[in-house]
């Protein structure tokens, strides 16, 4: 193993920021050099715990900490601001999801990255889509990518295992507000689900979204969403998500011409058809038919490492000169955000919208929501307590 040390700095010491600190402290070829938070007491506390420098302003940290990589784990509106300044300084970026609140900002980030690479050709931009490392999703990617399902016709994902209580929403003044977070479940909980959808199937050509604002919680953003997605190749997709359902469901069906995959409760079932479904439909003389197919349970190795540390490890290894792909290149974050913004734009305007998305149209609605907001956010001012973030990370069960 190389003795080279990659110097990291972290901006944002909230729940997810603390997750990053834990694994960075144990990772080989890495040194944590600095932490930054606008809460000076918090920055000082964690700087002392980890023996690093404390900063209270991201620009100051980027300018004076001597770091190679910055992990951005702040509220979403600040992702582009910090990332763009880091790129201009030749500092590598690992950005938490989502890449930005709206596609216009995401495009600005990507353009700044491409421009900075002219000066710093080895500059890296990664995004924290750790669910791509989960074994069942990786297996889905392998099967779908192989083409063995034939022409895909439908993907239906009911993912309601995103329960959040009112207490959760009250835990931060920025949470679940248009001005502070820029949205609800699509912006906060579901970027991984949206990324997984576009990773497996690509972006649709048309989006029809139905978002319910504060239906089950005292918030001003969406907490229940249903979307219909239409792809250029004829495949249709459905997405159903909410933060108000217990115990919740995570069920993904992928239907193709030659077979069907069903992922639910930690099992991946494969229904292999006896022949082409579409050819049978066109050519059979039967007016009614049914195939009795015994599914095959696909073996999936679940002992492989996964999660945040694996995503960062890939970036570190690339910076050490190893030839390998990142789990997710930063610009790939635009796909999930396109789905999120597209669903909300469709819901705002009560009509289907096409992809590529009209980012200006979405921004008009977002800015109007911010301008006209009269929502009074209730914030729990109680002393901060330790939060187990593992319950919020995605699972295939």
UniProtKB/TrEMBL annotation:
Ranges of residues in domain GFO/IDH/MocA-like oxidoreductase: 137-261
Signal peptide: none
Pfam families: GFO_IDH_MocA, GFO_IDH_MocA_C3
Domain Gfo/Idh/MocA-like oxidoreductase N-terminal as annotated: residue spans: 6-119
InterPro entries: Gfo/Idh/MocA-like_OxRdtase_N, Gfo/Idh/MocA_Oxidoreductase, GFO_IDH_MocA-like_dom, NAD(P)-bd_dom_sf
PANTHER family, A to Z: D-GLUCOSIDE 3-DEHYDROGENASE, UDP-N-ACETYL-2-AMINO-2-DEOXY-D-GLUCURONATE OXIDASE
Protein name, as recorded: Dehydrogenase
Native source species: Paenibacillus qinlingensis
Lineage: Bacteria, Bacillati, Bacillota, Bacilli, Bacillales
